[in-house]
Amino acid sequence: MEGAPTNPRIDGVVDLQLSEVLSGLSHALDITEGQVPGHAERSCLIGMRIAAALDLDDDTRSSLFYALLLKDAGCSSNAAKVAALFGADDSMVKSTRRLTDTASALQALLHVLRTAGAGGSVISRGRHAGAVIRSGRAGARALVELRCERGAAVARAIGLGEVAARAIMDVDEHWDGGGYPAGLAGDDISLAGRVLCLAQTAEVFWERGGASAACEIARKRRRTWFDPALVDALVGLERDARFWRSLEAPIVTEVEPTEHVLVADGARLDLVAHAFASIVDAKSPYTGQHSEGVAAIADELAALLELDGDARATLRRAALLHDIGKLGVSNRILDKPGPLVPREWETVRRHPQWSMEILARISAFEEVARIAGSHHERLDGSGYHRGLTAAELDQPSRILAVADVAEALSADRPYRPALGADEVLEIVRRDANRRLDGGVVAALEQVLPAWSSNARSSRRAAQRGSK
After folding, report:
1. Number of H helices, E strands in the chain
2. What percent of the chain has pLDDT over 90?
3. CA nearest 305: which of 235, 200, 395?
4. Dihedral angle computed from the Cα positions of residues 308, 312, 318 and 322, in that order, rounded to the nearest 10 degrees
5. CA-CA distance, 23 to 353, in Å (whole number)?
6. Residues contacting residue 44 through CB under 8 Å, at least 6 positions apart
7. Which of 65, 197, 261, 284 has the smallest CB count inside 10 Å?
8. Which positions ≥6 away from 326 have C-beta within 8 Å?
9. Residue range 204-219: mean pLDDT, rounded
10. Which secondary-structure segment (H or E) carries 343?
């Protein structure tokens, strides 16, 4: 590590508001859904303003607040299925569907014809359109159910409770019973879920046409999609210019219930990191445990190389969240079985930058963002996205780079099967002291065999459990 900067002490995180963490990370959910960054934050402002007209107790208002920020937490779980079924960019399919009245057979059909096989041949477009049409309402329900169940599970994992989890589960239910996944109607839909449904739709149309568009879609879908009382509360804001201007630079802490501010201490921050790692890994069937695996390898390497406790905690969080930028990469690229074309490679090479930008939105994540954004950098300057060299890469960044390579080689990919520990070490050794840190690679020799054996056992157990 000659010439490398001295590793700075990375302090633990205390007294950080959970709202700052979730609002920052929500931008990753926005890009997965093909929405303009800030969508979840703007939806939160709209939803909490609607809630102000309701007689909600403090606990319910708090649950609603966090549910609005996390409403798309399950978005990655069906991305691969959407991309495969439609034969198109999953985020494009999802974003355009938000503008479609899926209760209208004509609008639903037109959406399929516009998006299925987009960019492909006429034959490919016809094949994918036929597959979507044959899947029908049952197929749509299954995709929504997967997304909602996963999102609710994330809320529970972070410790937000059943009111928030149920709201996320109900986000796509409609007042008239025509929504998904359960086809609930009226008051059978949780009140918080009804707010989420209206708020997110209003935001999407506000983004494209301002307050008048947001209120017009609410009036149009009153009593079909939306609770009439909630629509009345929203349209009452139509001439509140100050409120609508606040969406241009959303600050969610201004609407956070002050009686129930949740703090992200070290323990809760770890819960959030693990939860968002699961969101990232769910994006592709080939990365089911990638972030967790990278974090486990990195932590063992850090222990062997005697990093202190704070440095290990920061590295562990960076490892869990290092690929959060991949949520912005289409599954048509991530799951492609053949070689990527230059345009696709350019997109892939931007994901560390997106990871760094998303994580940097959280004030206490400066080091986490820097380390996570460096996971594809190499000592000789051949890495990406910034082309850093040995003198610019500290020990945590070097550890994460090695852990990322080792886990990726140990897992199945669309273009090759998983490699055993001996094969992985043989490949990694070739880059030691050239592209990857030699001392970290030497430590990997001690760590990888046992980790690889445990990972194989876990994968076999998971496969048996899914049968």
Report:
1. 21, 2
2. 87
3. 395
4. 120
5. 19
6. 23, 65, 68, 69, 199, 250, 252, 255
7. 261
8. 280, 283, 287, 334, 351, 354, 355
9. 98
10. helix 342-349
Assigned CATH topology for domain 39-249: Hypothetical protein af1432 (1.10.3210)
Q: Are 359 and 368 in contact (CB under 8 A)?
A: yes
Q: What are the tens digits of pLDDT across the range 240-251?
A: 999 999 999 999
Tokens describing residue 119? 């960019």
Tokens of 268: 């809760």
The residues near 80 (Cβ < 8 Å, ≥ 6 apart) are 90, 283, 284, 285, 331, 334, 335
**Lookup: tokens for 174:** 């409609």
Q: Report d(CA 255, CA 279) in Å as an integer.
A: 26
264-466 has the same fold as 39-249: yes
pLDDT per residue over 69-99, tens digit each? Answer: 999 999 999 999 999 999 999 999 999 999 9
CB 403 within 8 A of CB 320: no
Q: Which of 94, 220, 326, 467 is catalytic?
A: 326
Tokens of 142: 């299954």
Domain definitions of the chain by residue range: 39-249, 264-466
Token pair of 178, please?
């025509």
Residue 258 vs residue 130, higher pLDDT: 130
Q: Which one-letter amino acid corresponds to residue 287?
A: T
Q: Is 71 a catalytic residue?
A: no
| Average pLDDT, integer, range 26-45 | 97
The stretch 138-152 carries a mean pLDDT of 97
Quote the pLDDT of residue 449: 92
Report the top-level CATH class of 264-466.
Answer: mainly alpha
Torsional sign, CA 135, 141, 146, 147: positive
Check: CB of residue 204 under 8 Å from CB of residue 36. Answer: no
**Phi, psi angle pair for 222, to nearest 5°:** -65, 130
Sign of the alpha-carbon dihedral angle for 185, 104, 207, 117: positive
Per-residue pLDDT, 411: 86
For residue 120, give the DSSP letter.
Answer: S
Q: Which two tokens stand for residue 361?
A: 């939105």
Residue 17: burial class (beta carbons within 10 Å; 0-12, 13-18, 19+): middle
Write down the residue that tokens 């380390």 correspond to: 371
Asked which of 28-37, 259-268, 345-354, 388-397 is least confident by mean pLDDT, the reply is 259-268
